[in-house]
Write a structure and sequence with these properties.
It catalyses: a monocarboxylic acid amide + H2O = a monocarboxylate + NH4(+). The chain is an alpha/beta fold. The protein has 17 helices and 11 strands.
Length: about 500
């Protein structure tokens, strides 16, 4: 496929590319080869850190030979090229470094349940994207692979920990890529890169076969997309539970892709622009984006009221810090098993090493207290949202931040998260409560950089319906960053 056609295909979202394949206008192989052209054109972004081109070519050829693209039996996404975040989306036989120098030669032994669902949907997996070590940072600049460049500007982070996926989607390399979210790791990159970033509700998908949950329920997995309909279709593909899961979310009343075709009933929306944590001041440009979104939603018939639930900020920050120290101690054990020796300090990021060392001394009582605090703050949050359906807040309290801010050691894990929360604000509350949350690219700075606005609710359907309304009222589809592939 020539480069001109490859770059023209970049303008289509995932469903648009799949529709071409279903109509017989392109093959899965042609879609893949076009995406590979775009990967090569976007190498300077450092978004894709593992090429799985041969695997992708084999899968695309099998789809073409089977004829399933025309029958639709795999669903509406069959034949679309897709990238996996190099964390939480294991693919047996593929490299899986998780952004860690200690795991630089690690290869996955199992395929994650969610990746099996992607394969069942006919997505053609052909690469893996950059991520910070173990997803610890809301920026993507690991020393193992180096920083990923934000297509909007080389001076701002693409966010993290799903920053490689976000940069690849924002630049037009692929229409969608996988992500995971523990304190904002889908929504922060979505905000920094001008994308749709949905964190599903707790239990929407499975962590099988390797785990029953992530970070005691804080982590959820989904994707970065440019359109709401792609996010809905991908969520349909991975909704469900594996045998033996400790818990799961109720199945939706209808497929999410169908749900967004119907506008939501008038929603009672609580709006806040300030942080739930003491101290940070929200940037005026972010405030303006949230207020403009609120005015738009009011014009669509929704009831907007100022206010927000309050939480015990110290309890939340302490709990998140403790859960991360325990998780990092566990990942250190994985590195030790992989290497067959004791890993060295210089094989980890300095901030990860702080978490690891604290994890070695975290007591069982502290761990249990952290879990109890998460549950207590969830109840407090939910009780204060009684009488309202949706919470409207900033995604980030700031405009897209610079590099070397959100990955630096601060002496303690708690101090590290204090710095993170001064930028991210509300994102962690969706993880703590288990609520669904979506970041939408509804604002811009004076110099054209993206600003995300966040909606939170107990379930995804209402968020996707609201997002679809806003996508029409405040369209972002035509925005292209300076780093869009094929632009130069």
């Amino acid at each position: 496929m020539d480069s001109r056609t490859a770059f023209e295909l970049a303008d289509l979202d995932a469903l648009g590319q799949a529709q071409l394949a279903a109509a017989g206008e392109v093959t899965a192989t042609e879609l893949l080869e076009a995406a590979i052209v775009r990967v090569e054109a976007g190498r300077t972004l450092n978004a894709v850190i593992a090429d799985l081109f041969d695997r992708g070519r084999t899968a695309a050829a099998a789809l073409d030979a089977s004829g399933v693209l025309r029958t639709g039996e795999n669903g509406p996404l069959a034949g679309v090229p897709f990238l996996l975040k190099d964390l939480g989306a294991s693919l047996a036989g593929a490299p899986e470094a998780m952004g860690s120098r200690a795991l630089r030669t690690h290869v996955a032994e199992q395929t994650a349940w969610i990746v099996e669902r992607y394969l069942d949907a006919g997505l053609v997996i052909f690469g893996k994207t950059n991520t910070p070590e173990w997803g610890n940072h809301c920026t993507t600049e690991p020393s193992l692979f180096g920083p990923t460049v934000n297509p909007w500007s080389p001076d701002i982070t693409p966010g993290g920990s799903s920053g490689g996926s976000a940069a690849a989607v924002a630049a037009g390399i692929v229409p969608a890529a996988s992500g995971g979210d523990g304190t904002g790791s889908i929504r922060v990159p979505a905000s920094c890169c001008g994308l749709v970033g949905l964190k599903p509700r707790r239990g929407r998908t499975s962590f099988a076969p390797g785990a029953g949950q992530g970070l005691e329920g804080l982590v959820n997995e989904h994707a970065l997309t440019r359109t709401v309909r792609d996010s809905a279709a991908l969520l349909d593909a991975v909704t469900g539970a594996a045998v033996g899961d400790p818990y799961s979310a109720p199945l939706p009343a209808e497929p999410f892709l169908h749900a967004i075709a119907t506008p939501p009933a008038p929603q009672r929306i609580l709006m806040a622009t300030s942080s739930p944590f003491p101290g940070p001041v929200t940037d005026p440009a972010v405030v303006a984006a949230v207020e403009h979104t609120a005015a738009t939603l009011a014009g669509l018939g929704h009831l907007i009221e100022p206010g927000a639930p309050t939480i015990d900020a110290d309890a939340v920050a302490d709990a998140i810090a403790v859960l991360h120290t325990v998780s990092n101690a566990g990942l250190f054990a994985l590195a030790r098993e992989h290497l067959g020796r004791e890993p060295h300090e210089d094989e980890f990021e300095p901030s990860s090493w702080v978490m690891i060392r604290e994890g070695f001394t975290t007591t069982g009582l502290a761990y249990a207290d952290a879990i109890a605090a998460v549950h207590a703050q969830t109840r407090r949050f939910a009780a204060q949202m009684t009488g309202h359906d949706v919470l409207l807040v900033p995604t980030l309290l700031t405009t897209p931040p610079p590099y070397r801010l959100l990955d630096q050691p601060r002496g303690t894990t708690r101090a590290f998260f204090d710095v993170e929360f001064a930028t991210t604000g509300w994102t962690a509350l969706a993880n703590v409560t288990g609520w669904a949350a979506v970041s939408l690219p509804l604002g811009t700075t004076d110099d054209g950089l993206p600003i995300g606005v966040q909606l939170m609710a107990p379930d995804e359907a209402v968020l996707l319906r609201l997002a679809a309304q806003l996508e029409i009222a405040l369209p972002w589809a035509g925005r292209r960053p300076p780093g869009w592939v094929g632009r130069n």
